[in-house]
Fold:
Amino acid sequence: MNLNILIAQRIGKKTAAKGKLSRISNIIASISVALSIAIILISLAVAGGFRNEIWKKASGFSGDITLQAPGVEITNHLYPIAPLSCIDKIETLEEVASVEPVRYRTGLLKSQNQIQGVLFKGVEGSNKLDFFKECLIEGTLPDYTIKRDSTGYTLPPSNDILVSKRLSNLLGYGVGDKVMAYFVDDDVTLRRLTICGIFDAQLDEMDKALIIADTRHISHLNGWKNGEVSGYEISLDNRHRKSAAKYTGKIDEAIYRYSTEEDPSVVPQALSDRYWLLFDWLHLLDINVVIILALMIAVAGFNMVSGILIILFERISQIGLLKAIGMRDSNIVKIFLYRAASIVMAGIIPGSITAMLFCWLEERFRFIPLDPTNYFVDHVPADISLLSVAGIDLAAFLIIMLIMLIPCRMISRISPATTLKVE
Structure:
């Protein structure tokens, strides 16, 4: 066995007659490291959980990237986009999971005591309904597939709509209720629609005014030609979803390369740019996590420095003896670094296990509730993986060990002639 490691193990033995104070300080240091690692991992898991949940919900509403007319909101029904010849090429890109046309139209819903401005989103078939299936709390999903009778005649579009829980509570509507929708242009157009389901996505500003309807209704209300849409929603695969902003350039390049002169002008817009207020909130959350990470590493490092200093003071005569018999300062430093490493690992391992257990229990039982009006979710989300835990543990270990070099520099100033007299 390496001599430095052997001496480090002997220093840490509980059977040693001396060193009671150092053993107590080492226990405190290990507990400090464990708590710091647990808090860091839980903070990162919670921040990652918020990011995943909010991105998933926002993406469910409008995709990861939208193609729309330049300088115009995609919800504006006055500027339709004609069919694009480059859509097939965009769908073949490695990062793209799907490209769906979408149509929007603003309108009004009226109850006995309330009038509420709403945004109708037209979808085709069962497209874009997977997300709302997860959020559905009452009723059923609508069926917007084009149907034909026995003679081949195309049946009219479905009158079924999906509304949010907040909107249904505001207007006093329930599943199966008939609602009158008003669409104001030069004239006022009415549609009698039926609520077939209620969803709760918990993103208040988005879902309180959004209504899912048959896209053929929206196309007819807007007076559009066949194939004209408000825009296209591009969904990326899970590997690239969080980096959607980086892929707008690639989408833009595909549009430039494969579009013809007859194609209308469109620009890609990332989800984070469209809902920038929502993602600014996530950035603030990330800043808080960085502050917590720095504070916890500082606390763990301070306690480790205290523990190692106590060991050095208690073993000062032993250090002088090792110097007197010819051991180099670098080897003596290694002895105490090995001892520090064992103390750090004694904290990192239980701290990591505690954090992973907490995150698993929270995701499994959701025992910490939140107000979705303020936090966009009804519980504390925790997204953690073994790879991220290993990365944080390794980074924390290396940072603390670098901090340990500060007290270990005292070894070079210890004089054997003086310290051998110390009992």
